[in-house]
Here is the input.
Amino acid sequence: MAQNHIEEGEAMPYTNATAADIASGEVVVVGDRVFVALGDIAVGASGSLATCEVWELPKKAATAFGQGDVVYWDATPGEITDVALDGVPAGYAFADAAAGDATIQVKLNG
Here is the structure.
């Protein structure tokens, strides 16, 4: 293996420097990327964030998404949206999500 290989990159170490604990499965924005906490991360503690794969996340009410649609994370309400101006690029809709659905399957950008 190449000597400069670090790791596969499916998870990223993260130290919680926020003022709140992070729950397992919660979206965490780092820079311009969206990740998902793989376990609980207390304030000041370190943990791992998923950088890829498909996750079920809360979505904007009354908004339908088609499979393959680009989606964004809007941190203020804490949901996936279709509006780039309000959010951070999260990935794409892995499956259709109807307007009445509370969640959406998202393939993270990775």
Summary: The radius of gyration is 15 Å. The chain has no helices and nine strands. The chain has a mean pLDDT of 96.
